[in-house]
Design brief:
This protein is α/β, with parallel strands linked by helices. The strands form 2 sheets. It has a 4-stranded mixed sheet with strand order 4-7-6-5. It contains 8 helices and 7 strands; from the N terminus they run H-H-H-E-H-E-H-E-E-H-E-E-H-E-H. The two termini are about 20 Å apart. It is about 30% helix and about 10% strand.
Length: about 250
């Protein structure tokens, strides 16, 4: 299948299923330490300190990387922590373009850090397209904040369009030709729909209800689907490929 739309990636969390509970919602550990074995080696070498090394953070980074089509993503505990890392990674004497009128803490940090590392910093209102057109110099870093704080000025980042989800929350059922096994075959071929009962979440789900409640008289070939907020084209394509395999 082709790459899913952003709405689908965000709602599905890259198809993540919690390996311990089989839940479609990731487990969240607010605070923890990590156990070591008898030789004092970490049982999970990738987990030594919970602030930046835990499965929840890694999953969030993977989802953001998929949304941004980035090679890698790092999450930080605060915006200022991320900003500090970016500027501290620049070599001495770098040229930087910074949006004016942004968070005062950011402005103070940039000013102090620029003086320390002899950075050449230009401040410009990046929400003003005419002002941006006059910028011709090459910069090592362009730093913007959109919408800005506190002015709430919006900078158009390469004509990025913000799309609202197509909607969701619909529940529907369908009957598959061929009986019980045919219905189960279709359900098994779906890749975006998780096989679980809906509790009103944002992800799309599918069920073969006769397996769950055979005593209620539900037809054996009935499939119930709960539509989430994913891009409708992705969901349709998923059902089409599942039905095609069935046919």
């Amino acid at each position: 299948m082709k790459k899913s739309h952003d709405n689908t990636i965000a709602a599905q969390l890259l198809g993540h299923i919690d390996p311990h509970s089989a839940g479609v919602t990731p487990s969240l550990q607010m605070s923890t330490t990590f156990v070591r074995d008898a030789e004092n080696a970490l049982v999970r070498p990738d987990n030594s300190y919970g602030r930046d090394q835990n499965d929840g953070v890694r999953l969030a980074e993977d989802v953001i990387a998929a949304l941004e089509e980035a090679e890698d993503v790092l999450l930080f505990p605060s915006g200022m922590a991320a900003i500090a890392v970016i500027f501290q990674a620049l070599p001495r004497g770098s040229r930087v373009l910074v949006q004016s009128g942004i968070y005062w803490g950011t402005m103070k940090f940039i000013g102090d850090h620029a003086a320390l590392l002899r950075m050449d910093v230009d401040f410009i209102d990046t929400s003003d397209e005419d002002a941006l057109d006059q910028v011709t110099s090459d910069y090592d870093l362009v730093f913007i904040e959109t919408p800005s704080n506190p002015w709430l000025k919006v900078t158009d980042i390469a004509d990025v369009q913000r799309q609202m989800p197509d909607g969701g929350g619909y529940l529907m059922s369908l009957l598959v030709k061929g009986g019980r096994q045919a219905a189960l075959d279709v359900v098994s071929k779906l890749t975006l729909f998780h096989r679980a009962t809906s509790l009103g979440g944002v992800e799309s789900l599918v069920e073969h209800r006769h397996t769950i409640e055979p005593h209620t008289g539900i037809p054996e070939n009935l499939i119930r689907i709960s539509i989430g907020v994913e891009k409708v084209e992705d969901l349709i394509a998923d059902f089409e490929q599942a039905l095609l395999h069935h046919a």
